[in-house]
Amino acid sequence: MRGPGYDGASNMRGAWNGLQALFLRDCPYAYYVHCFAYILQLALVAAAKDVAPIWLFFSTLNSIINLITASPKRHGELQSTQATDIAHMLDTGERETGRGANQIGTLHRPGATRWGSHYDSVSDLIEMYNASCSVIETLIKDGATNSIHGEATDTNALYKIGTSRSCQQRDDITVEHHYRVDLFNDTIYYQLEELNTRFSKGTIELLTLSSALDPSNDFKAFKIDDICKLVEKFYPRDFTSKDLRLLRYQLELFESKLHLDIFQNMSTLFELCQRLTQTIRAQTYYLINRMISLVLTLPVSTVTIERAFSAMKHIKIVLRNKMENEYLTDSLIVYIEKELSMDIDSYSIITYLEKLKERRVLLH
User: CB of 224 within 8 A of CB of 251?
Assistant: First the structure.
């Protein structure tokens, strides 16, 4: 078994509790590289909480989104105002028409475990800035409820907390110094701290050594010693001592052929694997091809399992919450593996079901 993947947003429970530990006990070289997008998302969210101006920005953003989207009336006013703005910009030529363009959107809340949700929230507010301001101005003119007044008070309090120390005590600091040193450098520092704590040393070393196979920039990162170290340390059961000596010889021979046209204009490891197979050089460099195949399982397996969990929100809806696990699993497999399910003949399934037992009603 190679390259297993797990749901990183929650621990496995019930019958599957400790599944990763059980796999590692029987397959110690089944390396698991957690989804980097998820780790980066958590690291950025944690770093944002440690930098006061960044925390203030996203807290205010979340308050604005909650204020506008909490009421169906305000949400409808937002979309109506946005439609008016888009129509005006189309008339003045500020926007171009096109298929799928100029659609009416809404503000999305940022989520700690949703990849790119903070970026989407900021982009939505920029896109609908005028419409959002119009909704808030209407609330101010028409009068607001006590809860909305309280929301505005809380937002003002957040502003005072975030600016009192930096602005009131350091009047000699320039704007450039504030954004470059106090804000940008602090943010980068906290992000690096979070990344160092969330990425294990073993994972970093595995991926660093694997990058020696990267064919981009004319194999600039190609290093024979790193590739051999990768095999010796992380894949000892897949290569014998004789294979290791032969692998170094194949790598030296492969390096001498990198100037050939067949090894040019490649940017990914997957393209290199394809090129070796298409030119039948996978048989000549069979140990290199084996090494590439093992490394390729790391990102592919993780993406596959994350895709499966993302598909659950489309399958497990309110109407299907009471379905049995076996039926849910079968439905997910058909939905996720669409390419495979399209090759399945419906009549063969019906014939199979008819042979299981006699039925009162014909299936076709």
Answer: yes
As a whole number of Å, the CA-based R_g of the chain is 28
Supply the pTM of this predicted model.
Answer: 0.52
All residues at 6 or more sequence positions from 125 whose CB lies less than 8 Å from its CB, including other chains: 61, 64, 65, 107, 132
| Distance separating alpha carbons of residues 43 and 197, to the nearest angstrom | 9
- Give Cα separations from 62 to 55, 65, 118 (angstroms): 11, 5, 10
In the chain, where are the structural domains located? Answer: 43-196, 202-300, 316-364
Cβ neighbors of 306 (< 8 A, separation 6 or more) are 5, 35, 37, 38
Report d(CA 113, CA 44) in Å as an integer. 11
More confident residue, 156 or 297: 297
Question: DSSP string of 5-39?
Answer: ---SSS---GGGTTHHHHHHHH-TT------HHHH
What is the percent of the chain with per-residue pLDDT over 90, rounded to a whole number?
A: 11
Closest CA to 246 of 206, 286, 276: 286
Measuring CA to CA, which residue among 262, 265, 169, 180 is closest to residue 217? 265
Estimate to the nearest angstrom the gap between the alpha carbon of 194 and the chain centroid: 17
User: For the segment 113-141, what is each residue's pLDDT rounded down to a tens digit?
Assistant: 666 778 888 888 888 888 888 888 888 87
pLDDT band at 34 (very low <50, low <70, confident <90, very high): low
Instruction: For residue 177, give both structure tokens.
Output: 């110094």
